[in-house]
Amino acid sequence: MTPHLHRAQPYALALFRIVVGGLFACHGAASVFGVLGGAHGGGSIAAGTWPGWYAAVIQLVGGTLVALGLGTRLAALISSGSMAYAYFTVHQSHALFPIQNGGEPSAVYCWVFLLLVFTGPGAFALDSLLTTRAPDRRDQDRTPEQSSPVAV
């Protein structure tokens, strides 16, 4: 069963990336444009308001880029950082644990996007259409087991 799971991994990662990016972009669209129920139950955040409007723009743009697989690692890094900032500046002062301070979404998005920084976009990413990578000479003489940084 393990070989089947390994073959499916890029596709599962792509589905994960698309869903998470889309959900994150919806948060941004709700805050920037007042759609999907709006920010905090209605309306939009006033343009230029610190830090809410900037966070919403990062959510909208970063989530869209991650979902499309375009600049995934950089978009995920910036999105992860914005969620870490949100957690520590907005939620942490209310209580120690995310379950107590309402910061669960910020904490989860922070770690999810950090994971995407390290895993990359998986299959179906627009990055793969825009760039072609020449094979690395060091990889030509290696078996798949030797190329993998983690032995399973």
Describe the largest sheet: none
The helical percent reads 55-70%
Helix-strand sequence: HHHHHHHH
Distance N to C terminus: 13 Å
The gyration radius over C-alpha positions equals 18 Å
Low-confidence stretches: none
Q: On the 0-100 scale, what is the average pLDDT?
A: 86
Keyphrases for this structure?
152 residues; mainly alpha; 8 helices; 0% strand; globular
Characterization of this structure:
This protein is mostly helical. Helices cover about 65% and strands about 0% of the residues. The protein contains eight helices and no strands. It has helices at about 1-35, 50-70, 70-90, 100, 105-120, 125-130, 135-140, 145. Helix 1 (about 1-35) runs antiparallel to helix 2 (about 50-70) and helix 2 (about 50-70) runs antiparallel to helix 3 (about 70-90). The mean pLDDT is about 85.
What is the topological layout?
Layout: H1 2-33, H2 52-68, H3 72-91, H4 98-101, H5 104-119, H6 126-130, H7 137-140, H8 144-147
Helix pairs in contact: 1-2, 1-5, 2-3, 3-5
